[in-house]
């Protein structure tokens, strides 16, 4: 990969940058974001669900570029600030991939660069993202995603317990769990008759050790995609850089993410839009990666569907997709769980927003904010993908009206933990179908969203 | 007191840390307000009010960080006027995100709001080894161990920390509280913690109750 040739330049920055305490770096982030929000006149209009102002999106991009050149990134392991020039960042973005092929054989799909209101198809990822799953249901749950034709690639869940042991990061157990993830996920794609389907790895490798071992002999494939991340806000560490270095040396597809916190160091919606843009802009620069995700979180709800966050993601996505060709991703991270209408309306809002804002890939669904055991099913991911696909080519103005109506249906539930029911209670495990109650609820909400103007 | 409240609130909201400290000193020296009374009847209500605003997301972490800095400065400044030990500090808290987890911002929100509400904070940062919490109990004589885990794969280390405290005979010396996305009250009870906080405001309420 052409963009992988800068590896040493990046690693050297972690050893040569200015030594700084992390709290000093945090203050630098806070002060600079505050100044730039004012300088670039970044304003959140609560009347709109998503951004529809191209000029504002472009100003956010410029502000993010300035933020990155003035603040840089912080390496926690070496306590150093990694600095980047504007030219360096723009050059790295120039060489970042504008497309990538996932998967093998008949199950291949291509992630392509998009821009706001684009008709280019999005790639839909089906996954229980972060949700703890019991070993006995793991393969069935993954099959529930893989069997849906709308889903182009899948990403694993996290074990709640495996070999009778609770998962424990950076331990031999993590290695065992990540290998078990391979076994059970491959079983799922075989059962779904999609053997070449790309898999995102390794959901059970929170530290680097699981990833390093399972992307070696007999583990995950080069046609899969492999994950690393930034730490909020604008930080990295050796663990993530080790993972990235291994992935570069192994010629793997690198997917990464940055999940800033609403109300955190960057403040409210305006600062969040700015720092989300800045962080995702730096992912391909620092990690030499191919696809780049953002899923800002609410500090109390843990979800990303609160209106003030939906707007921020839309503005950040548009800033990036109007001004670069990088392959951006948005993850749906709702408060609602299976067998709740709340979950489906949240999916419709995020998937529609992401699709019309130019995201290349839409991930989900991290149902019930990914913390309730087995509270995840393929059906919500199917619906998430259906909304993303239906919104292709839609104007932001039309999407804005649909999303506002969806928000009216779910906002009141956000702080009430509407977790719904676990997989084994809402799916027939023999037929691998949603039970009638869950299927009927899906059809009802789909019909409601259709009436809002969604062209299913 | 209303005017003093308004004055201090105004400076803190404007991010004027030095002016906040000067205002507190002025109130004591020129208005003759007792320093302890100022801490209890002006500073504490201002910080409570800001905490409430934060819990409604009307203000954000940067605003809280300024408030915490101002509160620390005011407490330090007014100590010269206080002859006997007072309850200016509610207790000493060691806080951190547990091993294998680098989520920082939520923990920082909790630490900052606790600081704003009069707790002395020893923030160990993220990816904190269980033994570091144990050492803080031994060396720093903390009243509370507060552990955050945003990852289910790090939760075992929270449990281990409590097991270490028990094994070393330190458990009775401290309160242990836990929080984080996958953590819930049932699990907190199961591992032998003294309490669970869903967010920063709940953490303050919890510690106020536990140390009352």
Question: Could you write a compact summary of the structure shown?
Answer:
The complex is a heterodimer of chains A (456) and B (212). Chain A has helices at residues 7-16, 22-39, 54-71, 86-95, 135-146, 172-191, 208-214, 238-249, 269-287, 307-323, 341-356, 378-390, 396-410, 423-426, 436-451, and strands spanning 18-19, 73-75, 80-82, 99-102, 109-112, 123-126, 132-134, 153-155, 158-161, 198-201, 225-229, 235-236, 253-258, 291-294, 327-331, 361-364, 427-428, 433-434.
Could you explain the architecture of this structure?
The complex is a heterodimer of chains A (456) and B (212). Chain A is α/β, with parallel strands linked by helices and 456 residues long. Chain A has one domain: Alpha-Beta Barrel (TIM Barrel), CATH 3.20.20. Chain A is built from 15 helices and 18 strands. Chain A is globular. The model of chain A has no long low-confidence stretch (mean pLDDT 96). In chain B, 52% of the residues are buried. The model of chain B has no long low-confidence stretch (mean pLDDT 92). Chain B is elongated, with a radius of gyration of 18 Å. Chain B has a 5-stranded parallel sheet, with helices on both faces. Chain B has 2 domains: 2-81, Methionine synthase domain (Methyltransferase, Methionine Synthase (B12-binding Domains), Chain A, domain 1); 91-210, Rossmann fold (3-Layer(aba) Sandwich). Helix content of chain B is 55%, strand content 11%. By secondary structure, chain B is α/β, with parallel strands linked by helices. The chains are: A alpha/beta (456), B alpha/beta (212).
């Amino acid at each position: 990969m052409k963009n992988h040739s800068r590896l040493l330049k990046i690693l050297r920055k972690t050893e040569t940058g200015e030594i700084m305490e992390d709290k000093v770096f945090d203050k630098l982030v806070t002060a600079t974001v505050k100044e730039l929000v004012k300088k670039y006149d970044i304003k959140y209009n609560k009347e709109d669900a998503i951004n529809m102002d191209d000029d504002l999106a472009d100003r956010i991009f410029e502000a993010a570029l300035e933020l990155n050149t003035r603040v840089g990134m912080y390496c926690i392991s070496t306590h150093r600030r990694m600095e980047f020039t504007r030219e360096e960042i723009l050059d790295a973005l120039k060489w970042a991939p504008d497309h990538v092929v996932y998967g093998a054989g008949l199950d291949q799909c291509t992630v392509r660069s998009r821009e706001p209101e684009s008709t280019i198809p999005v790639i839909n990822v089906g996954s229980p993202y972060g949700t703890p799953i019991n070993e006995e249901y793991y393969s069935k749950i993954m099959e529930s995603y893989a069997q849906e034709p709308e889903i182009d690639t899948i990403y694993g869940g996290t074990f709640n317990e495996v070999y009778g042991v609770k998962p424990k990061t950076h331990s031999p157990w993590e290695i065992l769990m990540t290998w078990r993830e391979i076994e059970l996920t491959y079983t799922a794609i075989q059962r779904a008759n999609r053997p070449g389907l790309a898999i995102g790895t390794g959901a059970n490798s929170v530290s680097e050790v699981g990833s390093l071992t399972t992307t070696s002999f007999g583990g995950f494939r080069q046609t899969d995609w492999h994950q690393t991340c930034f730490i909020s806000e604008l930080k990295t560490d050796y663990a993530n850089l080790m993972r990235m270095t291994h992935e570069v040396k192994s010629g793997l597809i690198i997917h990464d993410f940055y999940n800033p916190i609403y109300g955190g160091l960057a403040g409210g919606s305006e600062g969040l839009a700015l720092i989300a843009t800045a962080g995702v802009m730096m992912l391909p620069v620092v990690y030499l990666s191919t696809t780049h995700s953002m899923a800002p979180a609410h500090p109390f709800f843990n979800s990303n569907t609160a209106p003030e966050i939906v707007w921020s993601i839309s503005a950040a996505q548009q800033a990036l997709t109007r001004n670069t060709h990088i392959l951006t991703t948005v993850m749906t991270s709702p408060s609602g769980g299976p067998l709740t209408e709340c979950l489906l309306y949240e999916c419709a809002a995020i998937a529609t927003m992401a699709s019309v804002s130019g995201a290349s890939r839409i991930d989900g669904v991290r149902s019930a904010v990914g913390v309730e055991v087995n509270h995840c099913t393929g059906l919500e991911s199917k619906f998430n993908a259906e909304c993303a696909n239906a919104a292709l080519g839609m104007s932001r103005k039309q999407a804005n009206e649909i999303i506002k109506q969806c928000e009216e249906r779910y906002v009141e539930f956000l702080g009430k933990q509407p977790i719904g029911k676990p997989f084994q209670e809402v799916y027939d495990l023999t037929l691998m179908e949603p039970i009638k109650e869950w299927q009927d609820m899906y059809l009802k909400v789909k019909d409601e969203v259709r009436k809002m103007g969604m062209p299913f | 007191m209303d005017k003093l409240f308004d004055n201090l609130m105004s400076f803190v909201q404007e991010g004027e840390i030095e002016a906040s400290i000067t205002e507190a000193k002025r109130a004591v020296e020129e208005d003759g307000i007792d320093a302890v009374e100022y801490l209890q009847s002006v500073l504490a209500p201002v910080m409570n009010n800001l905490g409430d605003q934060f819990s409604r997301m009307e203000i954000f972490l940067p605003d809280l960080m300024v408030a915490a800095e101002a509160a620390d400065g005011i407490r330090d400044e007014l100590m010269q006027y206080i002859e006997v030990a007072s309850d200016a500090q509610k207790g000493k808290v060691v806080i951190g995100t547990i091993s294998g987890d680098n989520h920082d911002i939520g923990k920082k929100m909790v630490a900052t709001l606790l600081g704003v509400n009069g707790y002395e904070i020893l923030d160990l940062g993220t990816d904190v080894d269980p033994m570091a919490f144990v050492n803080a109990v031994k060396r720093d004589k903390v009243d509370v161990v507060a552990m955050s885990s945003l990852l289910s794969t790090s939760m075992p280390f929270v449990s281990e920390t409590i097991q270490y405290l028990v094994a070393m005979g330190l458990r009775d010396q401290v309160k242990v509280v836990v929080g984080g996305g996958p953590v819930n009250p049932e699990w907190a009870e199961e591992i032998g913690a003294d309490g669970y906080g869903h967010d920063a405001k709940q953490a303050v309420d919890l510690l106020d109750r536990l140390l009352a």
